[in-house]
Amino acid sequence: MNKFLLTLLFVQSLAWASAATEIDHEKRVDVLHEIRKALITANVTAQDAPIMIAEPARSFYHFGAVLDQDFKVVALTPGSDAAKADVRVGDMIKAINHQEVNKSSLADILAQMNDLQEGTTLAIEVQRDNKLKTLQSPVTRKTLPGWRLELVEDSGQAPDTPLTMGCGFVSVFYNPPISMHRHTVMINEIKDIGFKGKLTETKREQVFRLPAGEVEIVVQELISSDSIRRNRGDSRIRQYNSIKTMTLVVEPDKVYHLAAEYFSDRREREDADDYWQPIVWKTTERSCE
């Protein structure tokens, strides 16, 4: 069965990296899961490969308030300019930069807001408890990093490396069952065969041929952030505990399918920070010849 090997190269950030250079592992996992969803929604298959899509870095402005049709604030983005200005859920937005907000003016106001320069002052007039209040916040623009997305056809087959003492395989080709709290992992290093993931790669192997015997494998969890965020504190822990080393006793002609087992119930943990462990979730037969 063919499958895409998905490679996301952010020019400015979010590159494949080890824990020492990773800025935010959770952001990278979020991006990966959103790309998977997008590929499924767009019905992109292996037959469409190769595809390369690229975007340069882009500057944008995000005010951070969600309004209903009556311009009432129904949600706020934490840390946004709206939140810094003390806009609150339930406020009615009456004017922005002294321009009245209504259905006919909204498009023009949004266009003007998108052109606001970093550090200038944004004035927001709101109605709260039947009183008008004028709030202010300095404009904070954001920059989306430049990125390149490559989709290349990959067979999920291990490279042909002759091994004289018998061999087996380790694989991250198949998705483990999330319903059983098992999530995908990424292989970062296998010293026995000289593999070490680079910071920015155009290809990451999914199946490795290994010598029979004891092998150490360094893996990084790619647990869905939706799952992680249900346990307060795990998002912080994963910034320094997302990479682990597992020892695998490889038998000839066996395929060991790896996964990250997430301990969503804290009572299952021997240590509060050990929120996951690398496991073999399935073993299959495959000839090494």
UniProtKB/TrEMBL annotation:
Keyword Signal among record annotations:
yes
Q: Which InterPro entries match?
A: PDZ (IPR001478), PDZ_sf (IPR036034)
Give the record's keywords alphabetically.
Signal
Every PDZ domain range: 50-128
Q: Which domain of life is it from?
A: Bacteria
The signal peptide, as residue positions, is: 1-19
**Does the keyword Electron transport belong to this entry?**
no
One Pfam family name is: PDZ_2
The name of this protein is PDZ domain-containing protein
Query: What organism does the UniProt record list as the source?
Result: Arsukibacterium tuosuense
